[in-house]
Every structure is written in C-alpha cells, then in structure tokens.
Amino acid sequence: MTPADAAELLAHCAAFDRRTIGEADARAWARALHDVPLDDDLLDAVAEHYAHTDKWITVAQVRDMRARIRVGRIDAAHPVYDGNPDESGEQFVARRQAQITAAAEGKLPARTITQAIGAGPSPKLLALTATVVHPVDETDEPAPYVDEATRAEIRATLPGNRAALVELDVDCPNTRCRAARRHLCKSSRGKELRGTVHGQRRDAYATRHAQCPDCGAPPRHPCTTPEPHPARVRAAVADRPVPNRHHLDRLMRTPPAPRESRARHTSGGQHR
Ligand SMILES: [Zn+2]
Ligand SMILES: [Zn+2]
Predict the structure, then answer these.
(1) Is the pTM of the predicted complex or chain greater than 0.85?
(2) Distance 43 CA to ligand 1 centre (A)
(3) CB-CB contact of 230 with 114 (8 Å)
C-alpha cells in the first residue's frame, strides 16, 4: 500500500473514530502495511472492528482482522489441489498458492470438506460393502452413472490395453499435453503416461459422460462449480474393476505376505 492508500484507509477509520490524519500518519501506516493492498477486505476489517468496539483501531488489528476474514473464506472453501502427474515441484507450489489466494478472495465457492477431498465412501468401498452385506445379485448393484452400454461402446473404440483408460475418449485439455482422443497423455518431457491421464482430462471425461450426483448436472453440462464435483469424477470411472466378493474372501483368508527384509532388521536390532 502506498501513503495515498494509507491516507484513504485512515480516512475510512476517521469516519468511525473521528481521528485527525496527518501526512506522517499516512506514511507510517503505509510502511507498516507495505505488503497489504488497500482492498475491500481491509475496509471490511476496519468496519468489523468498529462494529464491536469504540477503541481506535491499530495497524496490527487491521492486519489481523483482514487475515481473519480471508482465512475464514479459505476454511469455507477447503481448497484441495490434486496436482498434475507431470508438474514440477515449483509448479505445484505456485498452483497450490494460486488456489489458496483464489479461495481467500472468495473466488472459490464454500464446500464441505467431504466434497473437497472427495472423501465420501468410494465406489469401490460401496461396491465392496454391497457384496458383503447382500448376496451377490446383479439387480442389487447401484446403477453406474455412465450406463454400461455407453461405456462398452467407448471402450470398443479405444485400442487394445488402452481400453482401461476410458478418459482417452476425450481430448486432453491440459495445455502442455493436448493429447488427441485415443492417444495417451504425455509428460512435459514428452513421455507417454501409462495408466493415468491429466486431471483436466479426467474432469473433461466426467463432464462429457457422467451425470453429477452432487449438483445433478446431466452429461455434457458443466457442474455448478468451476470444476466438476469430485463425486462426478469418481462416478465417471466407477466401473474400474472392483474386487468382487470372491476376491474379498480370498483377501481376508490370505495372511499378509511376510516382509522379510524388514523383519530381519527389526529382530537384528532387538536381539543383540
Ligand atoms: Zn494430457
Ligand atoms: Zn456437479
């Protein structure tokens, strides 16, 4: 903030506390708040202060109150950055920070933590518990959001083992990848990504083919949020192979594989 900004801020304060403002005040406040912009949050911070007390607001209180307003928005938005498979650490940090700033500025809608981390029971878990609680019965299975026929059709158009990645049905919108339909995503070094696609492509596929269980957006229509709801993205790939009952039974009967090297280290330490 410049001294001129500080003068404006102090004038805003004076409207509440009738303080007189000199050039020295403006310069001092500008210096103390050099890293804080004169924005609506700052003016709201002053208003918030005088809504509760008659005491003159200090620089420290202005700073604190503005931070609190913004942290409140970040808390409400629960920003989660999934990352891209091929971004650098630097890019991750920059994008994560941009997302937090957007949340602080109220550009991300408030959402529950469950929505944010997509932590509702996963389709895998639901499918698993369904087969455990009920006898295996085709008619009992929850209807997939992309119907089976459509998915089979999509798979049929994808070459060989790539059929497992239904997301290849759409072009990758990632600007540094732009893989065309049926082609694997590429890392920034040009290496084909096997077994995964860029997050944006996953989102694009979900938006194209799945109905959103959260906001009800039908296929080809965007969610009410800038990015598709996590439940929609999960629903879109809900037919990825899930362990069936027999597989589960086998898992539960099979003792965990011995971890020899680890056991050796441990006992070596303990018995000496
Ligand atoms: Zn891609
Ligand atoms: Zn939605």
Answers:
(1) no
(2) 43
(3) no
